[in-house]
Amino acid sequence: MIRAVMIDDELHCLDTLSILLKEYCPDVQLLEKCQSAAKGIEAINKLKPDLVFLDIEMPVMNGFEILEQFPEISFAIIFTTSYDQYAIKAIRFSALDYLLKPIDPNELVSAVKKVREQRQLPVAEQFQMLLSQIQEKNHHFKKVAVPTSEGFELVPADQVIRCEADDNYTHLFLKNNSKITACRTLKEIEEQLQDFKSFLRVHHSYIVNLNEVSKYIRGEGGYLVMSDGSTVNVSRSRKDALMRFF
Fold this sequence. Notes:
This protein is an alpha/beta fold. The chain has 2 domains: 2-135, Rossmann fold (3-Layer(aba) Sandwich), CATH 3.40.50.2300; 159-245, CATH 2.40.50.1020. The protein has helices spanning 11-24, 37-47, 63-67, 85-93, 105-117, 124-135, 186-193, 239-245, and strands at 2-7, 28-34, 51-55, 76-81, 97-100, 143-148, 151-156, 160-166, 169-174, 179-182, 199-203, 206-209, 213-217, 223-226, 231-233. A 5-stranded parallel β-sheet has the order 2-1-3-4-5, with helices on both faces. A 5-stranded antiparallel β-sheet has the order 10-9-8-12-11. The longest helix is centred in the N-terminal third of the chain and has 14 residues, at 11-24. GO terms for molecular function: DNA binding; phosphorelay response regulator activity. Keywords: Phosphoprotein.
């Protein structure tokens, strides 16, 4: 059973999410619904939940400012937000989860499943990445948080040569000849990397760092030879986007 607290200043959002949890996530025990930051902080300190559903846009103190009140984050977090491109980008970069309002039941089930299956809580560096991006909008990340079966690794983006899909996992191949397996789909990794302009999805199974391309071999879609000697197929539908870059 996952013990959860909700924090959202809009009552109808609290009620809607609680109904969805009851119907689609019966293993989530809702401990308390909090309509203000102060009550949310009090509930977290008192109840010690496993999971907090945290609204980002709230009066007096937003969701990120609430997190700053805790010297250590001892709970999983799923942010809930209306569309805010900047906040969503920061959340993706730090490999944390969010739900876009109005909340889709399938996305809720998927987010809760990740919480259920994760072996470790998010690490402090993820929240530091998130908060620094929110506080200083001109700041650009140089690293990306990669969730693994053991926790998280912070990887310099320029060290990634290519990413390869493996069902619900993604393998990241690095310049030092090592490989990291991320507990994320290639689509999720693509979203994390989208602000790094050198990364391009060239196939349904591959993303490449274009700075690490050594050669392009023509064909129906063709293929790329990367700096580590590996080859990556280019799908016909994505060939034009690749050619535009070159």
